[in-house]
Amino acid sequence: MGQCDSQTLPPSRCWAAQTFASTFLRSLFFPRCGEFLVDLETFPDEILFLIFSFVPEQDLILGCRLVSRRWKRLVDSPFPWRIRCEREHRKEIVFLAELCPDFSWQRVCIKTPFSRNLLRNPCGKEKLNHWSFRHGGDEWCVNEERLGTEDGEAQTCFVPSSSYWNSKKSQLIDLVGEGLWEHVLDVHQPAICIADWFIGGRDCDYEVTAELLAADMKTIMKKFSGGPNNFSHSLYNHYHQVYYEFQNYGPGVRYVNFTHGGGGWKHWETPRILNSSVKVKCENLKPCR
Fold first, then answer.
1. CA-to-CA dists, residue 157 to 140, 147, 212, 242, 265, angstroms
2. Chain centroid offset of residue 196 CA
3. Quick one: which of 12, 4, 19, 2 has its CA closest to 86?
4. CA–CA separation, 248 vs 190, rounded Å?
5. Would you give the distance in Å from CA 250 to the centre of its chain?
6. Does an H or E element contain 15, and which?
7. Using one digit for the tens of pLDDT, what is the confidence trace for 24-52?
8. Whole-prediction pTM
9. How do residues 51-96 score in pLDDT, each as one tens digit?
10. How many whole angstroms separate alpha carbon 189 and alpha carbon 289?
11. Domains of the chain
């Protein structure tokens, strides 16, 4: 079975393959009389790899993979997934695949664990969903925010109630469940990046804490805490970011426990928080020993 490299094909053939894949999927799931009478079994593997690389991931797994044994073998091979990454200029993924002996193209392309925010509902667009609270959520609310941050437009924000001093909310992130796997976490140890944006009144507190936990969800492998204990005048004029990267954290990390919060004596002095994020970088990775 030959390999197929999308970079060796002219743009006209890539466009033709994309159009063909789109037409094929429409006919496969929404057939109409007289449409799509091409026998794809006559196509060589290299052409099907290219066509599959344009098919959406879920359609490839839930549709194309079930057509025949041959198609299952082709979809399960790394070639259509690698062609997709090369075409989308995801060079860091291709580099990781060369470093990692048990690299799973399907897992990385479908789960996309790298460079996306692993926190859910980071700024309150889904109200208080996906967060855990010290007092059951009564100490938090979601407000509209007119001020923007450097990495996003103005949106909603989280605000702790003035009735509770030092209110906290948290999320527990399962790194393996989000698409990473033991080998890459233990050996290559990609950087785990924590970020939070906050603004507050003169008399309030704010803090963000991130803990890297072992598989038992109790053992703390690494910990970071950041944020001023008392706000100065310059901190309530615009949003400020707290940023930290975990590096060289050692083997055994499986979870990230992200917690932030604060409080104030009066409602207009409590901190406002938005654009929280936990991201895993796929660059400057350690090689296999």
1. 10, 10, 25, 16, 19
2. 16
3. 4
4. 8
5. 22
6. helix 11-29
7. 555 555 555 445 456 778 889 998 999 89
8. 0.80
9. 899 888 888 998 889 989 999 999 999 999 999 888 887 888 888 8
10. 13
11. 6-89 (1.20.1280.50), 132-280 (2.60.120.260)
